[in-house]
Protein backbone atom coordinates (compact mmCIF):
# COMPACT_ATOMS: atom_id res chain seq x y z
CA UNK A 1 0.00 0.00 0.00
CA UNK A 2 1.33 3.45 -0.89
CA UNK A 3 0.84 5.63 2.20
CA UNK A 4 3.15 8.42 1.04
CA UNK A 5 1.98 12.02 1.07
CA UNK A 6 3.41 15.53 1.20
CA UNK A 7 2.81 18.29 3.69
CA UNK A 8 4.46 21.72 3.67
CA UNK A 9 6.63 20.46 0.82
CA UNK A 10 7.97 17.67 3.07
CA UNK A 11 7.78 14.09 1.83
CA UNK A 12 6.11 11.86 4.41
CA UNK A 13 6.11 8.06 4.43
CA UNK A 14 2.53 8.08 5.75
CA UNK A 15 -0.05 10.71 6.80
CA UNK A 16 0.45 10.34 10.59
CA UNK A 17 2.14 13.23 12.40
CA UNK A 18 2.60 13.58 16.15
CA UNK A 19 0.88 16.82 17.14
CA UNK A 20 2.47 19.13 19.73
CA UNK A 21 2.16 17.56 23.20
CA UNK A 22 4.36 16.32 26.05
CA UNK A 23 5.16 13.31 23.81
CA UNK A 24 7.05 15.61 21.45
CA UNK A 25 9.16 17.31 24.08
CA UNK A 26 12.14 14.99 24.40
CA UNK A 27 14.51 13.06 22.15
CA UNK A 28 13.58 9.81 23.90
CA UNK A 29 9.85 10.02 23.30
CA UNK A 30 10.29 11.30 19.74
CA UNK A 31 12.52 8.29 19.05
CA UNK A 32 9.75 6.01 20.38
CA UNK A 33 7.27 7.72 18.03
CA UNK A 34 9.66 7.18 15.12
CA UNK A 35 10.23 3.52 16.06
CA UNK A 36 6.46 2.97 15.99
CA UNK A 37 6.09 4.47 12.51
CA UNK A 38 5.18 8.15 12.90
CA UNK A 39 6.04 10.11 9.74
CA UNK A 40 6.84 13.52 11.27
CA UNK A 41 6.77 15.33 14.59
CA UNK A 42 5.54 18.74 15.68
CA UNK A 43 7.44 19.74 18.82
CA UNK A 44 5.68 21.01 21.93
CA UNK A 45 5.38 24.80 21.77
CA UNK A 46 7.81 27.48 22.74
CA UNK A 47 5.54 30.23 24.11
CA UNK A 48 5.87 33.97 23.49
CA UNK A 49 5.60 34.46 27.24
CA UNK A 50 8.58 32.14 27.84
CA UNK A 51 10.70 34.21 25.48
CA UNK A 52 9.38 37.56 26.71
CA UNK A 53 9.80 36.67 30.36
CA UNK A 54 13.52 36.67 29.85
CA UNK A 55 13.40 39.72 27.61
CA UNK A 56 11.58 41.64 30.36
CA UNK A 57 14.13 40.56 32.91
CA UNK A 58 16.83 41.87 30.59
CA UNK A 59 14.93 45.15 30.11
CA UNK A 60 14.75 45.51 33.86
CA UNK A 61 18.49 44.86 34.15
CA UNK A 62 19.25 47.40 31.41
CA UNK A 63 17.02 49.95 33.06
CA UNK A 64 18.71 49.64 36.44
CA UNK A 65 22.16 49.80 34.87
CA UNK A 66 21.40 52.69 32.57
CA UNK A 67 20.15 54.74 35.53
CA UNK A 68 23.45 54.41 37.28
CA UNK A 69 25.77 54.06 34.32
CA UNK A 70 24.72 56.03 31.27
CA UNK A 71 26.88 54.24 28.68
CA UNK A 72 25.95 50.80 29.95
CA UNK A 73 23.42 50.06 27.21
CA UNK A 74 25.46 51.32 24.28
CA UNK A 75 27.73 48.29 24.03
CA UNK A 76 25.16 45.71 25.00
CA UNK A 77 23.77 43.45 22.27
CA UNK A 78 20.10 43.70 21.27
CA UNK A 79 17.62 42.16 23.72
CA UNK A 80 17.03 38.82 22.03
CA UNK A 81 20.74 38.15 21.67
CA UNK A 82 20.94 37.68 25.41
CA UNK A 83 21.10 34.22 26.80
CA UNK A 84 17.51 33.11 27.13
CA UNK A 85 17.43 29.90 29.08
CA UNK A 86 14.05 28.41 28.24
CA UNK A 87 14.21 29.43 24.61
CA UNK A 88 17.84 28.38 24.28
CA UNK A 89 17.01 24.97 25.76
CA UNK A 90 14.38 24.64 23.04
CA UNK A 91 16.97 25.40 20.36
CA UNK A 92 19.30 22.85 21.90
CA UNK A 93 16.47 20.27 21.88
CA UNK A 94 15.95 20.83 18.16
CA UNK A 95 19.65 20.21 17.50
CA UNK A 96 19.65 17.04 19.62
CA UNK A 97 16.47 15.69 18.02
CA UNK A 98 17.79 16.35 14.51
CA UNK A 99 20.97 14.43 15.37
CA UNK A 100 19.01 11.48 16.78
CA UNK A 101 16.09 10.90 14.41
CA UNK A 102 15.68 11.09 10.66
CA UNK A 103 12.03 12.14 10.41
CA UNK A 104 10.97 15.69 9.50
CA UNK A 105 10.84 17.96 12.56
CA UNK A 106 8.38 20.84 12.81
CA UNK A 107 9.11 23.37 15.56
CA UNK A 108 6.19 25.15 17.23
CA UNK A 109 5.91 28.78 18.28
CA UNK A 110 2.90 29.81 20.32
CA UNK A 111 2.14 33.50 20.68
CA UNK A 112 -0.37 36.25 20.03
CA UNK A 113 1.33 39.49 19.17
CA UNK A 114 3.80 41.07 16.81
CA UNK A 115 6.92 41.62 18.94
CA UNK A 116 10.54 40.78 19.73
CA UNK A 117 9.77 37.10 20.40
CA UNK A 118 9.10 36.60 16.69
CA UNK A 119 12.81 36.82 15.92
CA UNK A 120 13.06 33.38 17.54
CA UNK A 121 11.42 31.94 14.44
CA UNK A 122 14.70 32.34 12.55
CA UNK A 123 16.64 30.78 15.39
CA UNK A 124 14.40 27.70 15.26
CA UNK A 125 15.15 27.41 11.55
CA UNK A 126 18.89 27.82 12.14
CA UNK A 127 18.78 25.12 14.83
CA UNK A 128 17.57 22.66 12.17
CA UNK A 129 13.75 22.67 12.15
CA UNK A 130 12.38 21.56 8.77
CA UNK A 131 9.25 23.69 9.14
CA UNK A 132 7.59 25.90 11.73
CA UNK A 133 4.08 25.72 13.12
CA UNK A 134 2.57 28.87 14.56
CA UNK A 135 -0.23 28.55 17.09
CA UNK A 136 -2.01 31.85 17.82
CA UNK A 137 -4.54 31.40 20.60
CA UNK A 138 -6.10 34.60 21.83
CA UNK A 139 -9.31 34.86 23.83
CA UNK A 140 -10.55 38.44 23.48
CA UNK A 141 -12.42 39.56 26.59
CA UNK A 142 -12.90 43.25 25.80
CA UNK A 143 -16.34 44.19 24.49
CA UNK A 144 -14.75 47.14 22.72
CA UNK A 145 -12.48 45.00 20.55
CA UNK A 146 -14.18 44.44 17.22
CA UNK A 147 -13.79 41.15 15.37
CA UNK A 148 -11.87 42.61 12.44
CA UNK A 149 -9.17 43.85 14.82
CA UNK A 150 -8.76 40.41 16.35
CA UNK A 151 -8.47 38.92 12.86
CA UNK A 152 -5.93 41.55 11.79
CA UNK A 153 -3.81 40.75 14.83
CA UNK A 154 -3.67 37.11 13.71
CA UNK A 155 -2.77 38.09 10.14
CA UNK A 156 -0.07 40.56 11.22
CA UNK A 157 1.57 37.96 13.44
CA UNK A 158 1.58 35.36 10.66
CA UNK A 159 3.02 37.88 8.17
CA UNK A 160 5.78 38.90 10.55
CA UNK A 161 6.81 35.31 11.21
CA UNK A 162 6.62 34.32 7.53
CA UNK A 163 8.81 37.26 6.54
CA UNK A 164 11.61 36.12 8.84
CA UNK A 165 12.00 32.48 7.81
CA UNK A 166 12.86 30.45 4.73
CA UNK A 167 11.42 27.13 5.97
CA UNK A 168 7.68 26.54 5.37
CA UNK A 169 5.28 28.10 7.87
CA UNK A 170 2.22 26.17 9.04
CA UNK A 171 -0.58 28.04 10.80
CA UNK A 172 -2.51 26.06 13.39
CA UNK A 173 -5.94 27.65 13.07
CA UNK A 174 -8.88 27.62 15.41
CA UNK A 175 -12.41 27.13 14.15
CA UNK A 176 -13.93 30.16 15.84
CA UNK A 177 -13.60 32.93 13.27
CA UNK A 178 -16.80 34.33 11.71
CA UNK A 179 -15.56 32.94 8.41
CA UNK A 180 -12.74 30.38 8.74
CA UNK A 181 -12.50 30.15 4.91
CA UNK A 182 -11.70 33.86 4.62
CA UNK A 183 -9.12 33.60 7.41
CA UNK A 184 -7.56 30.55 5.76
CA UNK A 185 -7.18 32.53 2.52
CA UNK A 186 -5.68 35.51 4.33
CA UNK A 187 -3.22 33.30 6.25
CA UNK A 188 -1.97 31.92 2.94
CA UNK A 189 -1.71 35.43 1.46
CA UNK A 190 0.28 36.42 4.57
CA UNK A 191 2.81 33.65 3.87
CA UNK A 192 1.48 30.38 5.34
CA UNK A 193 2.41 27.30 3.29
CA UNK A 194 0.13 25.05 5.30
CA UNK A 195 -2.86 25.16 7.63
CA UNK A 196 -3.77 22.88 10.49
CA UNK A 197 -7.52 22.47 10.91
CA UNK A 198 -8.00 22.84 13.88
CA UNK A 199 -6.42 23.52 17.22
CA UNK A 200 -8.53 22.34 20.14
CA UNK A 201 -9.25 24.79 22.96
CA UNK A 202 -8.46 23.94 26.55
CA UNK A 203 -11.40 22.80 28.66
CA UNK A 204 -12.76 25.16 31.30
CA UNK A 205 -13.88 23.60 34.55
CA UNK A 206 -14.91 24.95 37.93
CA UNK A 207 -13.33 23.67 41.10
CA UNK A 208 -16.19 23.80 43.60
CA UNK A 209 -13.84 23.41 46.57
CA UNK A 210 -11.51 26.21 45.53
CA UNK A 211 -14.47 28.15 44.05
CA UNK A 212 -12.40 28.98 41.02
CA UNK A 213 -12.44 28.24 37.32
CA UNK A 214 -9.50 26.34 35.88
CA UNK A 215 -8.37 25.20 32.43
CA UNK A 216 -7.23 21.73 31.52
CA UNK A 217 -5.64 20.28 28.39
CA UNK A 218 -8.46 18.71 26.45
CA UNK A 219 -8.29 14.99 25.65
CA UNK A 220 -10.50 14.37 22.62
CA UNK A 221 -12.34 11.43 21.11
CA UNK A 222 -13.31 10.74 17.48
CA UNK A 223 -16.51 12.66 18.24
CA UNK A 224 -14.46 15.88 18.12
CA UNK A 225 -13.44 15.30 14.49
CA UNK A 226 -16.58 16.89 13.05
CA UNK A 227 -15.47 20.51 12.40
CA UNK A 228 -12.16 19.30 11.02
CA UNK A 229 -13.93 17.13 8.45
CA UNK A 230 -16.37 19.92 7.55
CA UNK A 231 -13.63 22.47 6.85
CA UNK A 232 -11.19 20.10 5.13
CA UNK A 233 -14.04 19.33 2.71
CA UNK A 234 -14.83 23.03 2.21
CA UNK A 235 -11.22 24.20 1.75
CA UNK A 236 -9.86 21.29 -0.32
CA UNK A 237 -8.58 22.47 -3.71
CA UNK A 238 -9.23 26.14 -2.94
CA UNK A 239 -5.85 27.25 -1.59
CA UNK A 240 -2.24 26.81 -2.64
CA UNK A 241 -1.22 25.31 0.68
CA UNK A 242 -1.25 21.96 2.45
CA UNK A 243 -3.98 20.95 4.91
CA UNK A 244 -3.33 18.99 8.08
CA UNK A 245 -6.34 17.55 9.90
CA UNK A 246 -6.16 17.85 13.68
CA UNK A 247 -8.46 17.29 16.67
CA UNK A 248 -10.23 13.98 17.05
CA UNK A 249 -8.05 11.69 14.91
CA UNK A 250 -8.07 8.45 16.91
CA UNK A 251 -8.33 5.56 14.44
CA UNK A 252 -7.45 4.36 10.96
CA UNK A 253 -10.98 5.24 9.86
CA UNK A 254 -10.60 8.79 11.22
CA UNK A 255 -7.41 9.24 9.18
CA UNK A 256 -9.12 7.99 6.01
CA UNK A 257 -12.17 10.22 6.55
CA UNK A 258 -9.87 13.25 6.93
CA UNK A 259 -7.85 12.37 3.81
CA UNK A 260 -10.99 11.80 1.73
CA UNK A 261 -12.38 15.11 3.01
CA UNK A 262 -9.26 16.86 1.72
CA UNK A 263 -6.43 16.67 4.26
CA UNK A 264 -2.86 15.94 3.12
CA UNK A 265 -1.96 14.52 6.53
CA UNK A 266 -3.31 14.17 10.07
CA UNK A 267 -1.88 15.24 13.43
CA UNK A 268 -2.50 13.17 16.58
CA UNK A 269 -2.04 13.93 20.27
CA UNK A 270 -4.84 12.53 22.51
CA UNK A 271 -4.79 9.01 21.08
CA UNK A 272 -1.03 8.75 21.58
CA UNK A 273 -1.23 10.19 25.10
CA UNK A 274 -4.00 7.81 26.16
CA UNK A 275 -3.13 4.60 24.28
CA UNK A 276 0.62 4.99 23.83
CA UNK A 277 2.88 5.15 20.79
CA UNK A 278 2.08 1.51 19.90
CA UNK A 279 -1.30 2.68 18.60
CA UNK A 280 0.43 4.17 15.53
CA UNK A 281 1.04 0.66 14.17
CA UNK A 282 -2.58 -0.32 14.82
CA UNK A 283 -3.86 2.79 12.97
CA UNK A 284 -1.60 2.10 9.98
CA UNK A 285 -2.65 -1.55 9.91
CA UNK A 286 -6.37 -0.63 10.06
CA UNK A 287 -5.88 1.85 7.20
CA UNK A 288 -4.14 -0.80 5.16
CA UNK A 289 -6.93 -3.32 5.76
CA UNK A 290 -9.70 -0.87 4.84
CA UNK A 291 -7.93 0.35 1.70
CA UNK A 292 -7.20 -3.21 0.59
CA UNK A 293 -10.83 -4.22 1.08
CA UNK A 294 -12.11 -1.20 -0.86
CA UNK A 295 -9.47 -1.56 -3.59
CA UNK A 296 -7.55 1.62 -3.00
CA UNK A 297 -3.83 1.59 -3.73
CA UNK A 298 -2.60 4.91 -2.40
CA UNK A 299 -3.36 7.85 -0.17
CA UNK A 300 -3.03 10.26 -3.11
CA UNK A 301 -5.83 8.38 -4.90
CA UNK A 302 -8.19 9.07 -1.97
CA UNK A 303 -7.33 12.73 -1.28
CA UNK A 304 -10.36 15.03 -1.43
CA UNK A 305 -12.58 12.35 -2.98
CA UNK A 306 -15.55 13.36 -0.79
CA UNK A 307 -14.68 17.08 -0.56
CA UNK A 308 -16.97 19.88 -1.69
CA UNK A 309 -14.54 20.88 -4.47
CA UNK A 310 -16.99 19.89 -7.19
CA UNK A 311 -20.11 21.16 -5.45
CA UNK A 312 -21.53 24.18 -7.31
CA UNK A 313 -22.68 26.00 -4.23
CA UNK A 314 -21.10 24.64 -1.01
CA UNK A 315 -23.08 27.06 1.20
CA UNK A 316 -26.38 25.78 -0.16
CA UNK A 317 -25.13 22.21 0.23
CA UNK A 318 -24.15 22.90 3.86
CA UNK A 319 -27.53 24.53 4.57
CA UNK A 320 -29.50 21.68 2.99
CA UNK A 321 -27.47 19.04 4.85
CA UNK A 322 -28.05 20.94 8.09
CA UNK A 323 -31.83 21.06 7.53
CA UNK A 324 -31.97 17.42 6.50
CA UNK A 325 -30.05 16.34 9.63
CA UNK A 326 -32.42 18.20 11.95
CA UNK A 327 -35.62 17.19 10.17
CA UNK A 328 -34.78 13.50 9.85
CA UNK A 329 -33.66 12.79 13.40
CA UNK A 330 -35.07 9.47 14.65
CA UNK A 331 -34.99 8.40 18.29
C1 LIG B 1 -1.41 17.64 27.15
C2 LIG B 1 -1.47 18.42 25.86
C3 LIG B 1 -0.44 19.34 25.57
C4 LIG B 1 -0.49 20.08 24.39
N1 LIG B 1 0.52 20.96 24.10
C5 LIG B 1 0.45 21.71 22.96
C6 LIG B 1 1.46 22.64 22.64
O1 LIG B 1 2.48 22.78 23.32
N2 LIG B 1 1.29 23.39 21.51
C7 LIG B 1 0.21 23.26 20.69
O2 LIG B 1 0.13 23.96 19.66
N3 LIG B 1 -0.74 22.35 20.95
C8 LIG B 1 -0.67 21.59 22.07
N4 LIG B 1 -1.64 20.68 22.34
C9 LIG B 1 -2.76 20.50 21.37
C10 LIG B 1 -2.48 19.28 20.48
O3 LIG B 1 -1.31 19.46 19.69
C11 LIG B 1 -3.65 19.04 19.51
O4 LIG B 1 -3.79 20.15 18.64
C12 LIG B 1 -4.97 18.82 20.23
O5 LIG B 1 -4.80 17.99 21.36
C13 LIG B 1 -6.00 18.18 19.29
O6 LIG B 1 -5.54 16.95 18.76
P1 LIG B 1 -6.02 15.53 19.37
O7 LIG B 1 -7.48 15.44 19.16
O8 LIG B 1 -5.26 14.51 18.59
O9 LIG B 1 -5.64 15.54 20.81
C14 LIG B 1 -1.59 19.91 23.49
C15 LIG B 1 -2.59 18.98 23.79
C16 LIG B 1 -2.53 18.24 24.95
C17 LIG B 1 -3.63 17.24 25.23
Describe this structure in words.
This protein is an alpha/beta fold and 331 residues long. The protein has one domain: Alpha-Beta Barrel (TIM Barrel), CATH 3.20.20. It is built from 12 helices and 13 strands. The strands form 3 sheets. Strands 3-4-6-7-8-9-12-13 form an 8-stranded parallel barrel, surrounded by 7 helices. The longest helix is centred in the first third of the chain and has 21 residues, at 48-68. The structure holds flavin mononucleotide (FMN). Residues 19-22, 44-45, 108, 110, 135, 172, 199-200, 217, 219-220, 224, 246-249, 268-270, 273 line the site of flavin mononucleotide.
Cofactors, ions, other ligands? flavin mononucleotide
- Class in CATH? Alpha Beta
Give the mean pLDDT: 91
Which CATH architecture? Answer: Alpha-Beta Barrel
CATH topology: TIM Barrel
Order of helices and strands: EEEHEEHHEHEHEHEEEHEHEHHHH
Rg result: 22 Å
Strand content: 15-25%
Q: What is the CATH superfamily classification? A: Aldolase class I
Uncertain runs are 58-82
Number of helices: 12
> How is the largest sheet built, in terms of strand order?
3-4-6-7-8-9-12-13
Q: What separation lies between the terminal Cα atoms?
A: 40 Å
* Helix fraction bin: 40-55%
Number of domains: 1
Largest sheet: 8 strands, parallel, barrel
